[in-house]
Each structure stands twice: as C-alpha cells, then as structure tokens.
Design goal:
The protein is of the alpha/beta class. The protein has one domain (about 1-280): Alpha/Beta hydrolase fold, catalytic domain (Rossmann fold, 3-Layer(aba) Sandwich), CATH 3.40.50.1820. It is built from nine helices and eight strands. It has helices spanning about 40-50, 80-90, 105-115, 145-150, 160-175, 180-195, 200-205, 240-250, 270-280, and strands at about 1-10, 10-20, 25-30, 55-60, 95-100, 120-125, 225-230, 255. The protein has an eight-stranded mixed sheet with strand order 1-2-4-3-5-6-7-8, with helices on both faces. Helix 2 (about 80-90) crosses helix 3 and helix 5 (about 160-175) crosses helix 6.
Length: about 280
C-alpha cells in the first residue's frame, strides 16, 4: 500500500509518502541536503516494503511539497530539521523507527538517535560523517573532486537548465570508475523539479542554515544496531569517514560499496536493501 500525506504540525507543512503496512516495523528515510524524498527512489522503497517494512520518505523543508521559504532566507535551522523527523513520526503514530540517513540525513539520524534514543530502533548511515564532533583529522575532498564541483548556477526559471544542473551535481558526486546513470538521475531530478514550489530555494537554502547543535551524548554511547554504508569512491566524505564511524559506534558493521561515490545508484541496491533489512531485523521496533 502506498499513500501520500500532508502533515501540519507546529505551523509547518511536511509532505511524506508511505509504502507497506502500518503494522510492520517502520523505516524512516532521511535524505541529504537540498534533496527531496524523490531521491529515495520508488522502487527502492517498494523493495524495503516488500521485505515487511513500513517505509516512510518525506520532503525536507524547502523541497518537494513541504514548507517553502524565500531563496536566501530560510527561517529554520538544522535543529528544526531534526524536530521535523520526530514530528513526522508522531503524526504517523510511530513510537520507534529504524532510521536510514544519507549524507546530511545521516547526521540528522545520528542526532535523533543520541538525543532521543527511545525513538530509534536501529541506524543505517549512508555516505555521511560524524555529527557529534569535529573530525578535521579525517581527509577532506581531493583536489580532483573539488575541481568538479564549481558548477555554474542555472537559470532558475528555465526547467531544462535546472534539471541539467541537478544532473551535473549528481555527476560530480558519483564515482569516476562507474558512469552516472543519467536516465535515472534525470527522472528523479525531473520529479523533484515538478513537485517543488521554489526550486531555487530547494537547491540553495540548506547551504545557509545553522547546523543542529552538538548532541547530548557521544556516538560511543549508542546501543542500537547500526550499519555504515559507504562508497569506496565517495568524493565528499572519503571512505575513511565511514570506517571511522563504524569503528566508533559500538558493534557497528561497515558495508563498502565498490565503484560508488557520494550516491545511491541502482546497481548498489542489491547490497544496500538487504543490509538495511538485516539491520532493522536486529531490533524490534
């Protein structure tokens, strides 16, 4: 069963979509910066639901059909994005969920697990780094990767220009050893463009918000099943970030995806879906 809902909570509109049966263990998918729920592709959600999970994906503020703010003037912070996830679970009547976070979404998932442990049954952290401390000792982007990222801003009023811009962002984050699935990226970028009230705000406002404050506990204190999934060729957070996370979080497992960058390509789903299901099977929600 698939269902879309618009939730009004604390004066904020949030759009979410669910897959599967409400009685099954809940998985909350938290996407990264400037990304709507469309980047959790429908087939991926259906695979997880087919494994007996109640899957929830949602639009962050300024993306998709959730609350939109003027470009350059986001009236929210990273702490509000953490709260949005909890408000969404409340609205769906979910007491505890298995959190799956990618990139910025992985950091948000860490903060939720550390500050609200009663709401979290397991963690899957994809292409992300530490939320509880500065790890400037870990490597940053390589010069080659940084050189790919200065992409000229599009004409925000031109649909083809904006979709092309999103595809080039995906290409810059992908592994250089495996070609970007441009058809898949175009399909997702087109859906996001079509569903988003202000695409300029969606693709720029998250860069301007203050991050969530440091969580009250440390990752060493986590006591939920955790799997860290990281692309071997991630240009944003090199693999050392994923390894360090897995070494820091008690009993965490590490899944390294060969030929994968800062992305979640379809060719990796045969490894990623079973890893999420296994992690969410290690605890009862």
């Amino acid at each position: 069963m698939r269902s879309e809902l618009i939730l009004q909570a604390k004066g904020v509109t949030l759009c979410a979509e669910t897959f599967g049966e409400r009685g099954d263990p809940a998985i909350l998918l938290i996407m990264g910066s400037a990304a709507s729920m469309d980047w959790w592709e429908e087939e991926l959600c259906e695979r997880l639901a087919g494994a007996g999970r109640f899957v929830i994906r949602y639009d962050h503020r300024d993306t998709g059909r959730s609350a939109s703010y003027p470009p350059g003037r986001p009236e929210y912070s990273g702490a509000d994005l953490v709260e949005d996830a909890l408000v969404l679970l409340d609205g769906l009547g979910v007491e505890r969920a298995h959190l799956v976070g990618m990139s910025m979404g992985g950091a948000l998932a860490q903060v939720i697990a550390l500050d609200h442990p009663d709401r979290v049954a397991s963690l899957t952290l994809i292409s992300t780094s530490f939320a509880d401390r500065d790890r400037s000792d870990l490597p940053g982007m390589t010069e080659e990767a940084a050189a790919r990222l200065p992409i000229d801003k599009p004409d925000w009023s031109d649909r083809a220009s904006v979709i092309g811009y999103m595809i080039e962002l995906q290409r810059a984050c992908a592994s250089e050893s495996a070609p970007l699935d441009e058809d898949a990226a175009r399909a997702v970028a087109t859906r996001m463009f079509n569903r988003t009230a202000d695409i300029e705000a969606a693709l720029t406002n998250h860069d301007l918000i203050d991050p969530a404050g440091p969580p009250r506990r440390r990752l060493e204190e986590l006591d939920v099943p955790t799997v860290v999934i990281h692309g071997r060729d991630d240009p944003m957070f090199p693999l050392e970030h994923g390894r360090a996370l897995a070494e820091t979080i008690p009993s965490a497992e590490l899944l390294v995806l060969d030929g994968v960058g800062h992305e979640l390509p379809r060719r990796a789903w045969d490894l990623v879906v079973p890893a999420i299901v296994a992690c969410s099977s290690a605890s009862t929600a």
